[in-house]
Amino acid sequence: MDYTRDEFILSTKVAITLTRKLRWGVIGSASIAVHSVIPGIKASETGEMTAIASRGIAKAEETAAKLGIPKAYGSYEEILADPDIDAIYVPLPNHLHMEWSIRAMEAGKHVLCEKPIAMNAEEAQRMADAAAKNGVHLAEAFMYRHHPRYDEIAAIVASGEIGDIRGIHSTFTFNNAGDAKNVRYRREWGGGSLYDVGCYPISVARMLLGAEPEAATVHALISPEHDNVDMMASGILEFPNSVALTFDCGMWAAFRNTLEITGTDGRIEVPSAFIGDGTYYVFTKDGKREVKQPELNQYALQADAFARNAWGERDVRFSPADAVANMKVIDACLESAYSRKRVLV
Predict the structure, then answer these.
(1) Dihedral, CA atoms, 24, 30, 34, 37, nearest 10 degrees?
(2) Would the CA dihedral through 292, 298, 300, 303 be positive or negative?
(3) Would you name the residues annotated as active-site residues?
(4) Which of 25, 2, 6 is nearest to 89 (CA)?
(5) How would residue 146 be classed by pLDDT, with cut points 50, 70 and 90?
(6) Do 285 and 235 share a domain, yes or no?
(7) Percent of the chain beyond pLDDT 90?
(8) Which residue ranges does the record assign to the GFO/IDH/MocA-like oxidoreductase domain (predicted)?
(9) What 3-state DSSP class applies to 171?
(10) Which of 33, 124, 210, 282 could in theory staple to 289 by disulfide, Cβ–Cβ 3.0 to 4.6 A?
(11) Would you say 239 and 214 are in contact if contact means Cβ atoms under 8 Å apart?
(12) Domain residues for 263?
């Protein structure tokens, strides 16, 4: 078959697009990496798992063999030196996020850092500055934001179908309190429910409202049995226009992860807001509407969005500045929880 010059160029571009892969390395073998993010990268259209590193070669080789990853390294430094890796996923304990993300970016790697991106907004800003300085893409790993239902929900809100938003309520709780050695229960390492799961209700409210809260008031269960981290926290964030997010988060309570958006004329309920089934419900004067979503891998969607951002093929929706802003709110929530005072954001 004969091709014109333009047809040949187009076919070549299509072939390159179809075969192009972002080559991933992972620092550490945390549960979230092994059970969710790495399988998501492998299931994505754009990602290719290249290597994993651990603090010892035996653990790295064991995880690599289990997950079919070609390379294993016995130190984090080695994986950053690998020229065959384009991007690094950082699922380390929270207190190590800044150090290893910046070191990866200084090595020329794009970075997907597990939430919360840092221990505080100051650290997050240093990470954002490093990304800009080194010309790489930095993103916080909130996988739920890449599920198409949130674009749908935002469109429903914007359409006025449920009227003006009067409030948002969200929860994320689970019970893991018996695992006393878990890194979530090390205060100096960034342990506690606000860091671990409270960040989700905070981020979803900011995303849906397109605004930043002005103040935070949080009451928490501070547990001496768990290194005095917040094992349960209930709070209110004051947004502009007299709208509030009420939320609770916890690591010593029955499992829930919900979202409810209440308007003047209706409401939207999301029973599994962050993980689980993608179904949600819209309630208006005309009744209840169920919206079902096909089964989608949010971690694969996250990997694809990240790759296309790194390649410059898609505008960045969730910038490092957004991660810094989310950390400012978490900072205020933690200050409020420990001081038992209302704190301006």
Answers:
(1) -50
(2) positive
(3) 115
(4) 25
(5) very high
(6) yes
(7) 93
(8) 151-269
(9) strand
(10) 282
(11) yes
(12) 145-344
Same domain, 58 and 132: yes
191: tokens are: 């342990």
**pLDDT exceeds 50 at position 3:** no
Report the alpha-carbon angle 190-194-316, nearest 5: 90
**Strand 252-263 to 165-175 pairing:** antiparallel
The residue count for the chain: 345
Token pair recorded at residue 72:
């294993």
Instruction: Identify the pLDDT of residue 117.
Output: 98
Q: Which of 99, 117, 143 is the last residue of a domain?
A: 143
**What is the C-alpha to C-alpha distance for residues 330 and 322, in angstroms, rounded to an integer?**
13
CA distance 193 to 179: 14
- Determine the Cα–Cα distance for residues 176 and 179; give it in Å rounded to an integer: 6
Distance CA 341, CA 326 (A): 20
Tokens of 98: 């800044």
Cβ–Cβ < 8 Å for 225, 184: no
What's the CA gap between 40 and 305, in Å, rounded?
12
Considering the domain architecture, whether residues 118 and 219 belong to the same structural domain is answered as no
